[in-house]
Write a structure and sequence with these properties.
The complex is a heterodimer of chains A (512) and B (171). Chain A contains 16 helices and 15 strands. By secondary structure, chain A is of the alpha+beta class. In chain A, helix 5 packs antiparallel against helix 6. Chain B has a single domain, classed as Rossmann fold. Classes of the chains: A alpha+beta (512), B alpha/beta (171). At the A-B interface, helix 3, helix 7 and helix 8 of A face helix 1, strand 1, helix 3 and helix 4 of B.
Chain lengths: 512, 171
């Protein structure tokens, strides 16, 4: 098919997600990116892969028509392609990562600093290339990363991390400050890079599901679903209807549990320990019910290619319903306490503000995006079963501060509880798992789902034997991390933990 | 204020009894003298180090301080610096990009010190294994006293691991 306004032949990628792909040349690559940007679309993910005798770079763009995947061949002798960070600023780090992993270079991008590669392997070795020696281990060292320095009277730097003061993931934050005011923050991530993408290569589709579920533990359901969607698409299969509905129960439970945890921690970071105690109790109750009904507190491996691992009995459904009623009541009570607490609101309001214009320019997504007027939610825009039969009400606000991100979380908790009740009424009976047909060799497949943090994408390519040749997992944190650098400008250093928590981004998901 | 107090009273005390130590979790022979362990048993400070986890273990470490487990009620608390810590609680396969940081954190922790490795990855390298980017299990990089399996281990299992590390071995 030809999508209107694009002079390109797009082929529909089979599967639950509305995905189209097109092989393009360098000029079409740039033109299509520009057109999508002008039409209000955005870059979801950029990744490279080996395509002997050369390489290919992929860009997944979200457009009103669906997800468009552009595939541009990159020649072996001169492995470079036109960079798109001028059109989509968020592309910058992804292009740097693609270079670290595959040695394909974005032309025009001045920032040539490594992103995922620290000192664990030499700069002339590229782990995702087929000829990379898996057995070869390099002596780790320290590297000297050139942070951008700010000069001037009274400016000084605070380096923070990678080991942080609380129970959080490792990353480095370099603050340039005057007094306690932040002039500039520069992030350096990649500390958790543990070779996930290389690990995928050669796995069977079933083995890959376990790994996908561990890309970012707090979003295990979202990754599990996106991966299963891609695997099913690669085999030309669809999950049984009951399985799709159960997946939505799992995804909404993951959303609620994470939002409850965040609401507690955000309250705590602003000095209200009562909030943490209350919300962490509610979260723990949910996790315990998860373990009872689905066999895992965080629902890991509950979604499998072909369906779900476990069905839920009538008595279990009743318990979920009772829990939803109780949560609705208690969370409303706690929301009232948060709303009426002057000390809390004083810390929340106007703190870490991202204006809608900045959010649009930088491509902020997920719940943080919705708190800055970015009305994006795949459950509403490109709904897969069962969301196409549920009327998801998106929560959006304009203020873009900590207060707005708190409010969006509260509203999404209520909406997810409503959705769960609706799902329990409408869920069809039947099978919950179907055997997958043999994987097609050389398949390209894609899955994408709106996780609690934002959209999680999994792209799959199978090799000649049907095993995974390339699997790229994309976390929405890629989009949102750079925005925190802007959100903290002119705030005071002591507000950084609160601002950071209000986004609550994944390190593991972006470090891969 | 009235609503906060009312909610606190309505919620009541939720804390459950802690688990007993489990000798099966001990990775190496006891390294510390029983009298030192006794001091730790009264007030233990822990520095958590995420050396490359998927962040699942961190969710459960955070759960340790919810009112059900109430770890701090046992005199065990998390501190902001390894220099204040008696114990390192380490998660993840150790990524090569975190290896130096983990080693330095270990060196910065004053003797006598304990190390508890958490999760399938901390115990064996887990699904990530050893590769160009991962050193695998925690004991490949620093000495480990107690290793707690599970993906992720439950808060109950983590408490059990911590309590095992600070209990004298009963022979």
């Amino acid at each position: 098919m030809t999508l209107e306004k694009f002079n390109l032949q797009f082929a529909r990628v089979r599967g639950a997600a509305r995905v189209f792909r097109a092989d393009v040349n360098a000029i079409e690559w740039i033109t299509a990116c520009r057109q999508v940007n002008e039409r209000g679309g955005r870059l979801v993910a950029l990744w490279g892969s080996e395509r002997a005798p050369g390489f290919a770079v992929h860009a997944a763009l979200a457009d009103a028509d669906g997800l468009l995947v552009l595939i541009l061949p990159v020649p072996q002798d001169r492995p470079s392609y036109p960079g798109i960070e001028g059109i989509f600023p968020v592309a910058g780090r992804m292009q740097r990562a693609a270079y670290d992993m595959l040695g394909i270079e974005a032309q025009g991008d001045d920032d040539r600093r490594p992103w995922l590669r620290h000192a664990a392997w030499p700069s002339d070795k590229f782990p995702l290339r087929d000829d990379f020696d898996r057995a070869c281990i390099y002596e780790p060292g320290t590297d000297d990363y050139p942070f951008v320095s700010v000069a001037g009277d009274g400016v000084h730097e605070i380096p923070v991390g990678p080991v942080h003061a609380g129970t959080i993931e490792p990353g480095h934050f370099r603050f340039s400050i005057i007094g306690e005011r932040v002039l500039r923050l520069e992030e350096r991530l990649g500390y958790k890079h543990k070779g996930i993408e290389k690990r995928f290569a050669g796995m069977s589709l079933d083995e890959g599901a376990r790994l996908a579920a561990r890309v970012s533990g707090d979003s295990t359901v979202a990754y599990g679903w996106a991966y299963a969607m891609a695997a099913e698409s690669a085999c030309g299969a669809m999950p049984p209807p009951r399985a799709a509905w159960l997946r939505a129960v799992l995804l909404e439970r993951e959303r609620i549990a994470n939002h409850l945890g965040d609401l507690g921690f955000i309250g705590n970071d602003a000095g209200l320990a009562f909030g943490l105690a209350q919300f962490s109790l509610l979260k723990e109750d949910m996790l315990r019910l998860n373990a009872e009904l689905f066999g895992h507190r965080y629902l890991m491996d509950a979604i499998v290619p072909g369906g779900v691992a476990r069905d839920i009995a009538q008595s279990g459904m009743e318990r979920v319903r009772v829990e939803a009623d109780q949560l609705t009541e208690t969370v409303a009570l706690l929301k009232n306490i948060y709303d009426e607490h002057p000390g809390l609101q004083d810390r929340f309001i106007a703190c870490g503000r991202v204006t809608p214009e900045l959010a649009a320019r930088l491509g902020l997504v997920g719940l943080a995006g919705r708190a800055s007027a970015q009305a994006l939610d795949l459950r509403e825009q490109f709904p897969v079963e069962p969301y196409d039969q549920l009327d998801v009400q998106m929560a959006t606000h304009r203020n873009g501060d900590v207060a707005a991100r708190v409010t969006v979380r509260f509203e999404e908790v209520f909406e997810s509880l409503r959705l769960i009740r609706q799902i329990l009424e409408l869920i069809p009976l039947g099978q919950t798992r179907a055997a997958l047909p043999a994987t097609a060799a050389g398949a390209f497949a894609l899955g994408i789902i709106e996780g609690w943090r934002g959209e999680v994408l999994v792209a799959l390519e199978t090799g000649a034997n049907g095993a995974i040749a390339r699997c790229h997992a994309h976390d929405p944190s890629w989009q949102n991390w750079p925005v925190i650098e802007h959100a903290v400008i002119d705030n005071i250093v002591p507000d950084f933990p609160l601002i950071n928590k209000s986004f609550n981004l994944s390190y593991s998901g972006q470090d891969l | 204020m009235y609503n906060i107090l009312k909610q606190i009273v309505t919620t009541g005390i939720k804390t459950e009894p802690p688990p007993a130590a489990d000798e099966a979790l001990r990775a190496t022979g006891e390294r510390l003298r029983a009298d030192i362990l006794e001091y730790f048993g009264g007030a233990l400070t822990i520095r958590h180090v995420d050396a490359g986890s998927c962040n699942g273990c961190e969710l459960e470490i955070n759960a340790l301080n919810n009112p059900y487990y109430n770890l701090e009620g046992l005199g065990i608390k998390f501190v902001a610096s390894p220099r204040h810590a008696d114990m390192l609680l380490v998660t993840g396969p150790v990524s090569r990009n975190m290896e130096v940081a983990l080693q330095r954190t270990y060196d910065a922790t004053p003797e006598p010190k304990l190390v508890v490795a958490l999760g399938e990855c901390g115990c064996t390298g887990g699904i990530f294994g050893e590769s160009y980017a991962s050193r695998g299990r925690v004991s490949n990089v620093i000495p480990v006293d107690v290793a707690v399996p599970g993906c992720p281990p439950t808060p109950f299992a983590i408490m059990q691991g911590i309590l095992t590390a600070i209990s004298a071995k009963k022979t």
